[in-house]
Design brief:
With 226 residues, this protein is an alpha/beta fold. The chain folds into 2 domains: 166 residues, Alpha/Beta hydrolase fold, catalytic domain (Rossmann fold, 3-Layer(aba) Sandwich); 56 residues, no CATH class. It is built from 7 helices and 9 strands. The strands form 2 sheets. It has a 7-stranded mixed β-sheet, with helices on both faces. It has a two-stranded antiparallel sheet with strand order 7-8. Strand 7 and strand 8 form a beta hairpin. Helix 1 crosses helix 7. The radius of gyration is 17 Å and the shape is globular. The mean pLDDT is 94.
Length: 226
């Protein structure tokens, strides 16, 4: 595995972003992996990395993105919105020559719709936003503060807001409120019922699930062989 810089003109960025790349350089299939969003990515990163290792063993290349403003990205998160992230994944797909896309959870909202591939447990924008708002109200209550989800949303629409340690701009809040999954994209929807394993994105700490990683990789290998 190697970390690769690639050109990306994200708002508030330096002109490049980073990705984790693995697999043979001459692979016939090259999968762009768009991770879950925000804290869910941290909880599922190890599972995705193990999936990438298994795919590499089957001579399938894969690329795991850091979306602009997230993880190792130097771009400003509060300058991003759903549109800038869709632009970034499209640029990454072109740069790395992706043949397929695999997205996890909220990543399905910004994965390239022009590539065939898979959506694993996809969720829409409101489903991304609500748990983050709820967590903030719970934290505020523990500190003796009275915050409501409606009040937080109202302020977020106007000036942005910090949720779960992430500073989201007003444009991102507005986008997440209404962002829906496209039913027309050529992606197979995968669920935990299909693959087995645990919902790592619900855990309080990052984790891994070797069986889930193996099952996800095996499903991709089987689909590509058809």
């Amino acid at each position: 595995m190697r970390i690769v810089a690639w050109p990306c003109a994200a708002p508030g960025g330096s002109g490049e972003e980073f990705a984790l790349v693995t697999g043979p350089t001459d692979a016939a299939a090259r999968i762009l992996i768009v991770p879950a969003l925000f804290e869910e990515f941290n909880r599922t990163r190890r599972m995705l990395v193990e999936t990438m290792r298994t795919l590499a063993g089957a001579r399938i290349a894969s690329v795991l993105l850091d979306l602009p403003g997230c993880n190792e990205s130097l771009a400003a998160l509060d300058a991003q919105n759903i549109g800038t992230w869709r632009d970034a994944t499209a640029a990454a797909a072109a740069h790395f020559g992706a043949t397929h896309a695999l997205s996890l959870r909220g990543g399905a909202l910004v994965a390239p719709g022009t590539l065939p591939g898979w959506r694993f447990e996809p969720i829409d924008g409101p489903q991304v936003l609500r748990p983050m708002l709820r967590a903030r109200t719970v934290s505020a209550r523990e500190e003796g503060l009275a915050e409501t989800m409606e009040g937080l949303l109202e302020g977020g629409r106007e000036a942005g807001i910090e949720l779960a340690g992430y500073r989201l701009g007003a444009a991102m809040i507005g986008d997440l409120e209404i962002a829906l999954l496209s039913p027309s994209w050529p992606h197979v929807i995968l669920t935990l019922d299909d693959l087995g394993g645990s919902a790592l994105w619900l855990r309080s700490e990052p984790g891994e699930d070797a069986d889930l990683s193996a099952a996800l990789a095996a499903r991709i290998v089987a689909d590509l062989a058809r």
